[in-house]
Protein: MHS family MFS transporter
Amino acid sequence: MAFATVVGTSIEWYDYFLYAAASGLIFNQLFFGPLGSTLSTMVAFATVGISFLFRPLGAFLAGHYGDKLGRRVVLIITLIAMGAATALIGFLPTYDSIGIAAPILLIVLRIVQGISAGGEWGGAVLLAVEHAEPEHRGLRGSFPQIGVSIGLILSSGVLALMTTIAPGEAFLEWGWRVPFFLSILLVAVGYWIRRGVEESPVFHEIAERKEQVTNPLGKLFKSHWLLVILASLLFVGNNAAGYMTTGGYIQNYATDPTGPVGLDRGPVLWAVSASAVSWLIFTIIAGSVSDKIGRRNTYLLGWMLLLIGIFSLFPLVNTGSIWMLFLGLIILTVGLGFTYGQQPAMYAEIFPSSVRFSGVSVSYAIGSILGGAFAPTIAKALVASTGTTTSVAIYLAIITLISLAATLALRDRSRIPLGPDHEEEQSVSPIIGIGSR
Structure:
């Protein structure tokens, strides 16, 4: 089960982050080039964010059918849709070939990626968490989370490899397409693995009792709307800071020949890939630590570490040294890991079983919009208007403090029973000041 969730989410996020990395390195030139250097990059980053606006649609659909039909079938559908969209991007003609139709088709395919991503995460983490023993729920839930890091490693690594195989103009002519074509093979492997995954035992119990909610989304927003808001805000700090790399901003900023850093494309991509290994390690550590000290305490520690990473990142990047850039990314990933590994367990424990898929998916999708959707675009605009990356650090710090406040508003419900036998206990609000346990 752990292997299946890791492989599936790694493939999904490889596809998703590949687009984000390509947006500031490739798409700004080949699809939005006529807009000029700065505006084309901002628009390319905006297309990364546009996909987030469609994540709730994917979350609504996946949550509705995941709570009615099961987690497994939704995961297979999202995997195929994501892979097909990614592969088709590799076949797209550029602006020079078909004009305005090129960026329009690119955006349409990115929207399909957004819908798929919105449905993927909730199903993957619930399969992991609902299969886990209560005392290991944080650790097991961190497994699909490391799929994000692996997806970043793969996407940045394959792009970096292609800069070596097809250097210079060859990379822009055809080299960038190869990583998108690779998605066809990856999705075939992921589909084969996910077909063999067993359905969540919690959903099996609900189905056997015929207790599926006919309108899980309606029940979610009627009874748990405030919890959805707080759960969404819990994610915004991590997502905004994480999208400095997964959204392609650091890659663009550090390689911009007109900017203050001016590093080569290849070394920066390798540095991002290597830092994702650190993110993976600290994500697993955070999940394990949360099993010992609780989800809430792990989050509080994580937000402090993330603030340190945010204020260290740009001063180190601005030295112009690839090693200092790598160090800055490593420091950032410590906080990213400690605010991410425990998230699946935390989310699963605060929503009742009957609407859990809907609650987890919708909260994650809304948090993604409020956090990372337009973080690279905002960062680009802030630097353009203020002339300093300090403004970006302040922006990210404010978002992080919002997540810290959301954490303080929630009780820790580590090890609460997740099955339908305990629906009444699960329905008691985990929000401090509303209900009690």
Residues 2-427 form a domain with the Growth Hormone; Chain: A; fold (CATH 1.20.1250.20). The chain is about 80% helix and 0% strand. The mean pLDDT is 88. The radius of gyration is 21 Å.
